[in-house]
Amino acid sequence: xxxxxxxxxxxxxxxxxxxxxxxxxxxxxxxxxxxxxxxxxxxxxxxxxxxxxxxxxxxxxxxxxxxxxxxxxxxxxxxxxxxxxxxxxxxxxxxxxxxxxxxxxxxxxxxxxxxxxxxxxxxxxxxxxxxxxxxxxxxxxxxxxxxxxxxxxxxxxxxxxxxxxxxxxxxxxxxxxxxxxxxxxxxxxxxxxxxxxxxxxxxxxxxxxxxxxxxxxxxxxxxxxxxxxxxxxxxxxxxxxxxxxxxxxxxxxxxxxxxxxxxxxxxxxxxxxx
Length: 274
Description:
Elements: E1 6-8, E2 14-15, E3 22-23, E4 25-26, H1 29-38, E5 42-47, E6 50-56, H2 57-66, E7 69-70, E8 81-83, E9 85-87, H3 88-97, E10 100-104, E11 118-123, H4 130-154, H5 159-162, H6 167-182, H7 195-204, H8 206-211, H9 217-224, H10 227-235, H11 247-273
Parallel strand pairs: 3-5, 8-10
Antiparallel strand pairs: 1-9, 2-11, 4-7, 5-6, 10-11
Helix pairs in contact: 1-2, 3-11, 4-7, 4-11
């Protein structure tokens, strides 16, 4: 891959100064009430001015009803952390294991307690915000460009790959192609294909599959996975990427499939261009 996909989690996490935090020491019942009324499942824990971890709201309520004190060393305080500067895969990996995490500045995520510079709080729902969608779009665009380039090189004559598609998909592509020629600009119909169509063409070509290291159509389909579905969700701004916590590892697996397939195609393109 010619670039490393990364993301700045600090751009879309909830800033720590906007979070409802709980102080160590005597538990404030008003803060617990605010957390419950707002539907917040977790609260950042502040000790002597520094955020040291997270605690679940129900645990605060239980402590308030039992012994209304919260110590910095309390085992109920968890320390889930995500670095603000992280790869997309790293973000999805971390959020596959935890529903909420403190976002820390840079390499501070390697530390715990008061040494970490906490920027904010991220939850599973925050993954539906624009930055992750934009980052995934960049990878999808790279994959689409590499696939189109590979097909264009392997099938110099468009009808040879157009016949792979169904009549319903083939007809508009031929129409755009003919129209461009009438306008005096002969643009290959590959320019109007969609990512699912490009994947179908490559998957149907035994020569291309083998060149990419896939012995069977099933092995290619397994790698392709849910790429078309993720592409559709990315391209529709109001459609959630993450509908449930269990979607996070699925999106990560699809991301890995995109990178693996795109890397294979990119390398093959480089070999054939040499």
